[in-house]
Amino acid sequence: MRLIHQVASSNSERATMELNIRQRLVLQCLGLEEEQSIAAIGQRLGLSPSTMTGLVDRLEEQGHVKRRPHASDRRVTVLVLSRKGSAAYGREMDWYRSLVDEILGSLGEDAKQVVLRALGALHSSKSETPATAA
């Protein structure tokens, strides 16, 4: 963890610094799945409806997201990335890739593959485990 923090702190080139961590997480959710309800994103991130409303309002004001009615259920509002939001998501993912490359740079190719497989397995096991209340 210390290495990750050190590398992340030293990397001042993060292109999405105008966004706070929660805003970046919302963009990441939408970048991974193109259209989601506000409630689904809030549940995924563990954020209350009132917190999500404020986040979405700010992201919409900044031009990163657009609200749309759900195609089959007009009571539900979904979010989609705008062109500006898609560009910010791309820059954020580029930053994460460079961070991973920097952290794993000193490892040999075999060791990198072991770490990446282990991270993939952790991610898979987490997504299969139901969330528990904290």
Sum this structure up briefly.
The protein has 134 residues and is mainly α.
CATH topology: Arc Repressor Mutant, subunit A
Radius of gyration from CA coordinates: 17 Å
Low-confidence stretches: 129-134
Order of helices and strands: HHEHHEEHH
Number of helical segments with 4 or more residues = 6
How many structural domains does the protein architecture include?
1
Mean pLDDT: 82
Q: How many distinct beta strands?
A: 3
Q: Do you know the CATH architecture?
A: Orthogonal Bundle
How would you characterize this protein structure?
Helices cover 63% and strands 10% of the residues. The protein is built from 6 helices and 3 strands. Strands 1-3-2 form a 3-stranded antiparallel sheet. It starts with a helix and ends in a 6-residue tail after the last helix. The model is unreliable at 129-134 (pLDDT under 50).
Summary keywords:
single chain; 134 residues; mainly alpha; Arc Repressor Mutant, subunit A; three-stranded antiparallel β-sheet
Topology, element by element:
Layout (H helix, E strand, L loop, with lengths): L1 H9 L10 H12 L2 E3 H8 L3 H13 L3 E5 L7 E5 L1 H22 L4 H20 L6
Antiparallel strand pairs: 1-3, 2-3
